[in-house]
Amino acid sequence: MKVIILAGGFGTRLSEYTDIKPKPMVEIGGHPILWHVMNIYAFHGHKDFHIALGYKGEVIKEYFLNYHSMNADFTVDLSNGTIEHHRKQPVDWKVTLVDTGNKSMTGGRVKRMRSYINDTFLLTYGDGVCDVDLDHLIEFHKSHGKMVTVTAVHPTARFGELQIEDNHVLYFKEKPQTAQGWINGGFFVIEPEFFDLIEGDHTILEKDPLEKAATMGELMAYQHDGFWQCMDTARDRNVLESIWQSGRIPWKKW
Q1: Is 98 helix (H, G, I), strand (E, B) or coil?
Q2: Which CATH architecture has domain 2-152+181-246?
Q3: What is the pTM (predicted TM-score) of this model?
């Protein structure tokens, strides 16, 4: 299946980094978070990527144009300009980079990808990682026959979670994923007729089209109890970096 990744937002809550690069290019463990997201899909055999660009999209274009050189040693023969790569890290991804406009909303960016998509497709955000089993997610989507499946996840608490009984703290965990409540975690599976629910560039994916799909009975939730973390703020970025440095990385299956 083709994979659309939304990578065009301004990332204003992460301005410490996004003044010079788009949010999906902010690095975790020396690699852009976009690279991590793509590896999650590639591990499950989905390697045909369509990246919806906007703010500072040229940075993402340059990254992929120079991907082999940036991820390998190489020799440049200055007499003729040829380049020989050494210790290449081979990837068999196909990456289509599409300018979807600086001011387009999330739904508008999806709508602009319509000419590239003819069948069931995968969609997610370029700033969140997850250990969801994509094979099971797709099987679930096929089993119910509806238009859209969203991966529902438990949000991460902003503060430490306490379980209290008779003023005694029975349980304490610093900023865990909460056990209650579900939120949109991205990692969608979508049928192409969903494009018809998106009006244009000004449409916010999470408002009219998804709300309409829900009203129509065409939106299903795949409930994922495992790891999920987005990167909205510098604190989120630091959390992900600390997880990567720990070596116990839930989303890294490759």
Answers
A1: strand
A2: Alpha-Beta Complex (3.90)
A3: 0.89
